[in-house]
Design goal:
four-stranded antiparallel beta sheet, 13 helices, Trigger factor, domain 2, 3 domains, five-stranded antiparallel beta sheet, Chitinase A, domain 3, alpha+beta, 11 strands
Length: 466
């Protein structure tokens, strides 16, 4: 195989590939050997059909298969040999081809520009460490305790009040007739929350243990048995118990119920939890600073086809008129995004960053934990949408690259209080609110792909036969 690069015009290059007919004939002979034992022709034993007869009957079809395979293999090899990374799908133009002939074709390629990554190590960004005061930890633990339902039975002679828990059995009727779903035991209501049937629990204020109380209420519109929806019903309630809320004692037992070893361990865990909440948000700001710094790097030329694709993404929800009006701004935004993507990807490749299947599945598991009760739906979504899984892989790849940049760049380490962290985040959100266009640009994921050590063979977009 002979490879030459012609017509160099900036990033546009033609790669001419020549394969002599002897090599092509060798490929054809291998194909004939491969099929001869599978062909049954009248008058010939299996595997004994002469090559000339096979050629006459199947030559054209076999040559098509051989040509496709040779084009796929040699075009990938030609790109590797030429050290060219294509920006998009190359166009393949057949010049000479045919049985018992040389093969010559041209790959028209738009090359990805060469980018410099050394400056990445000179990037400056803020790295925050939030100091959590012990009072903040205690405050969070008190909030948790307050939200724990802890009820204690009150004396039988004391009447129920708002905030009490009432436990009761009931039988209900509509027009003095029992109905489906109109009976239940050990129903529990916290008075004042109105979570059962509208207006129901207010009528239980003032009851005592062992009381019987008739409660009148209208069944809800979404009642399971449609024929009873919106019907007035009478509930004969037998009060079993009345309980009042009591403060949870914050001690080692309380901590153990929350999964900690003891109260001291719980405080350590809660302090870390608060710190992590701020760290995650502040890390996003650090990443934003890094990406903004990379945006300022110089890249001589950005491929026009990539700009056009990115502009299409930016304007996909707009009308044609609105997209046209914003085209210039979108082109500038597209150039920034593509530049950042190229530099991150090159940095990732230089440092042999890869994404394992375990890391992708770990990210899927994160998504599942964020949507409790919808795990099956989320799993099916990723199983049916390979592009969504590829996007997830790209996100993991980008995070690994940014984290590596953080380890090599120049952090401006800042120890801050919780109040300072809140102010920094508030100011950042205000900036995003005041500059919605910037927000759209910066929060969208950078366009980069996961590293693939093997170049993929281009599919022919257009084949001209000359």
């Amino acid at each position: 195989m002979k490879v030459t690069i012609e017509n160099i015009k900036g990033l546009n290059k033609d790669i001419k590939v020549f394969i002599d007919k002897k090599t092509m004939n060798t490929h054809m002979d291998k194909k004939y050997e491969e099929i001869k034992n599978t062909i049954n022709l009248k008058g010939f034993r299996p595997g004994k059909v002469p090559k000339e007869i096979l050629k006459r009957q199947f030559g054209k079809a076999l040559f098509g298969e051989v040509l496709d395979k040779v084009l796929k293999d040699t075009s990938a090899k030609a790109l590797v040999e030429s050290k060219i990374k294509p920006a998009g799908q190359p166009k393949l133009d057949l010049k000479i081809y045919g049985e018992d002939k040389d093969l010559e074709y041209v790959l028209s390629v738009i090359e990805l520009p060469k980018v410099e990554t050394k400056s990445v190590e000179d990037i400056k960004f803020d790295e925050y460490n939030v100091k959590i005061d012990a009072t903040e930890t205690d405050k969070r633990i008190n909030e948790i305790a307050k939200n724990q339902n802890n009820f204690k039975e009150i004396s039988p002679e004391i009447k129920s009040a708002e905030g009490n828990l009432v436990i009761f059995d009931y039988k209900a009727t509509i027009n003095n007739k029992e109905f489906t779903g109109g009976e239940a035991k050990n129903t529990q209501l916290i008075l004042g929350k109105d979570l059962f049937i509208k207006g129901f629990d207010k009528q239980l204020i003032g009851v005592k243990k062992d009381d019987e109380k008739i409660v009148e209420a209208t069944l809800p519109e979404n009642y399971p048995q449609k024929e009873f929806a919106n019907k007035p019903a009478k509930f004969n309630c037998k009060i079993i118990s009345v309980k009042k809320s009591v403060d949870v004692k914050i001690d080692d037992d309380f901590a153990k119920n929350l999964g900690a070893k003891d109260l001291s361990d719980l405080k350590t865990l809660i302090s870390k939890q608060i710190n992590d909440e701020f760290k995650n948000s502040l890390d996003i700001l650090s990443k934003k600073q890094i990406l903004e710094a990379i945006e300022k790097f110089k890249v001589d030329e950005i491929p026009e086809n990539l700009i056009a694709e990115e502009v299409k993404v930016l304007s996909q929800e707009m009308s044609e008129e609105e997209a046209k009006k914003n085209k210039k701004n979108f082109e500038e935004t597209a150039k920034k995004r593509i530049k950042v993507g190229l530099i991150l990807n090159e940095f990732g490749e230089q440092n042999n960053i890869n994404v394992t299947e375990q890391e992708v599945q770990g990210e899927v598991q994160k998504q599942l934990r964020m949507m409790p009760g919808q795990e099956k739906m989320v799993m099916e979504f990723y199983q049916k949408n390979p592009s969504a899984l590829a996007s997830l892989r790209g996100n993991v790849y980008e995070e690994k690259i940014v984290n590596l940049i953080k380890s090599k760049a120049k952090p401006n380490k800042k120890n801050i209080t919780k109040e300072q962290a809140e102010k920094i985040l508030k100011d950042s959100h205000k900036h995003d609110h005041d500059h919605p266009k910037d927000k759209k640009i910066e929060t969208k994921k950078t366009t980069i792909k996961t590293k693939n050590p093997k170049s993929k063979a281009p599919k022919a977009k257009k084949v001209s036969k000359k």
